[in-house]
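sry for the spam today, last one i promise. struct tokens for design, 146 residues
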């Protein structure tokens, strides 16, 4: 089993690929493809096992560097902003602070109210279409004879 790798910083990734820290995605991709041509293990058909292993490690490092540089940079809070608990680049994924009053409860209330409104509209429509049973009142579809 291999040991977990340490996260690569953006500066280290830019150094590995030989691009500026502010390089655009197209520049990063071009540098990656240029370096991968010589680092990919399949590009070394006559290499020994040790050389192929070293090439695979270098290829893996290039892939990780490209992924770091192509990932959107983490948002930086403006100076003086309070710490709101948002951690965009945590190892286990992003952490968000719980927001009171948000969740499924409000959605269920709205859903129940919409269902009640639908039932009321259907009932009103049925009541409006029901024929009147008053004596002498014409029923829909009948003709009145004098």
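last one done:
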């Amino acid at each position: 089993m291999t040991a977990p790798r340490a996260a690569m910083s953006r500066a280290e990734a830019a150094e590995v690929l030989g691009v500026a820290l502010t390089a655009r995605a197209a520049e990063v991709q071009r540098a990656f493809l240029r370096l991968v041509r010589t680092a990919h293990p399949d590009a070394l058909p006559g290499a020994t096992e040790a050389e192929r292993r070293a090439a695979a490690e270098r290829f893996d490092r290039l892939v990780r560097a490209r992924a770091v540089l192509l990932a959107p940079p983490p948002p930086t809070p403006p100076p003086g902003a309070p710490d709101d608990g948002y951690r965009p680049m945590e190892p286990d994924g992003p952490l968000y602070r719980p927001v009171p009053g948000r969740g499924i409860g409000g959605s269920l209330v709205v859903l129940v109210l919409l269902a009640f409104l639908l039932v009321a509209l259907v009932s009103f429509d049925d009541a409006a279409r029901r024929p009147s049973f008053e004596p002498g009142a014409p029923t829909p579809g009948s003709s009145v004879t004098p």
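The CA atoms of residues 88 and 94 lie 5 Å apart. ok im logging off now
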